[in-house]
Amino acid sequence: MVRRKGRTRDKWRDKRWINVVAPESMNYIQLAHIPITTDEGAKGRVIEKTLYDILKGDPTQYSIKLYFQIDRIEGDTAHTIFKRYEYSKEYLKSLVRRDSSKINFIMDAETKDGYVFRINIIALTHKRLNSSRKHALRLAARNILSRDVPKLDIHQFVQKTCYGDIHASILSEGKKLVRLRHVGLEKVKLVRTAEKQITLLEA
User: Fold this and answer.
1) What digits encode the pLDDT tens for the residues 85-123?
2) Which of 170, 156, 172, 166 is nearest to 188 (CA)?
3) Residues near 30 by Cβ (< 8 Å), separated by ≥ 6?
4) What is the pTM assigned to this prediction?
5) Among 13, 14, 33, 12, which Cα is nearest to 76's?
6) Looking at the chain, which runs of residues are DSSP E strands?
7) Measured between alpha carbons, how far is 176 from 16 in angstroms, rounded to an integer?
């Protein structure tokens, strides 16, 4: 006896479309329009955009990647948290030149409302530096982050990260010590929210 095949279930018909929006710090602008099967299954999904997608400013902002993670869903809207900011690999590679020094500095900093971020600063000079000047530059970066970040809430921190205020402060202070060609935030990752430790995105 030949068994009849059942009708193949159309998985797309079981999905619904929702709007994914940026956090309050970025005025809830729409990031994506995506299909989901369940609200619970959509939580944790990560949306990748460029800084230019958000700010619509300088075309060089295409070189900055931003990652947002769906945190909760209300009706047909998915709300996100800011999870990572980083230079694209191509942009990072273009910055490095011969006969100059590259200085990296990494530290964890906590906002006043309890969000912890791992901040990776990159500085590039016109000429090679000795170890004492590199140390002085790292110390200046540490002092600025330790002074400024604890005064900011999560929304202020995200804005200052994306609008360049943080690395501008480090650049201004660093220029008093050495001739700098570039200072920036190579990577900023959310390590924990105010409530709990989170799963980091892969590097």
Assistant:
1) 999 999 999 998 888 899 999 999 999 999 999 999 999
2) 166
3) 19, 20, 21, 22
4) 0.86
5) 33
6) 16-21, 30-36, 46-50, 64-74, 77-87, 102-110, 116-125, 180-192
7) 56
